Amino acid sequence: MFRILNALLLIALVLIVAVLAITAVPALGDGHLGGQMLMAHMAVSGALVLLLPVFAVWSLVRYLDPGRSTRLARWGFWTVVLTGVATIGTVFVCMLPVLGTDAMHAMIHWHGLAGWTMLPATALLVLGSFKKRGAARS
């Protein structure tokens, strides 16, 4: 049961991050994210905001214990959590009535950097999770 839930949470996280990356492609460089891509990005981001804390809490014990996970998986886990919090936090701050226009633009810039960093972090987590578990116990 626990392995199935772990796998489902990881698969959901990978799919969500992949869709967010695909929908963010128009914003690369000096591009603009708008229209249907922005709507899709915003809709799927809600799933990340819900899933990331669930994934982090559910997986915490596994990724704290060197006997239950590889070093690569632990690095991936913490990198995903940190980049995810940074990605979510930068947009959350933009929603508060405390920043001016320039600061909001800076936050969106940092949101993009944190979000794109989450892509290789997720790959690291997946690679570490599929690495032979026996190697983690040696």
Low-confidence sequence ranges: none
Kindly give the count of domains. 1
Radius of gyration, taken over Cα atoms and rounded to an integer in Å: 16 Å
SS strand fraction: under 5%
**Terminal CA distance:** 26 Å
The shape is: elongated
Write down the overall mean pLDDT: 89
The protein's oligomeric status is single chain
Structure explained in plain terms:
By secondary structure, this protein is mostly helical. The chain contains 5 helices and no strands. The chain has helices at 2-24, 35-64, 71-95, 101-130, 133-137. The mean pLDDT is 89.
Lay out the secondary structure.
Elements lengths: L1 H23 L10 H30 L6 H25 L5 H30 L2 H5 L1
Helix pairs in contact: 1-2, 1-4, 2-3, 3-4
In short:
The chain is 82% helix and 0% strand. It is an all-alpha fold and 138 residues long.
Features:
single chain, 138 residues, mainly alpha, 5 helices, 0% strand, elongated
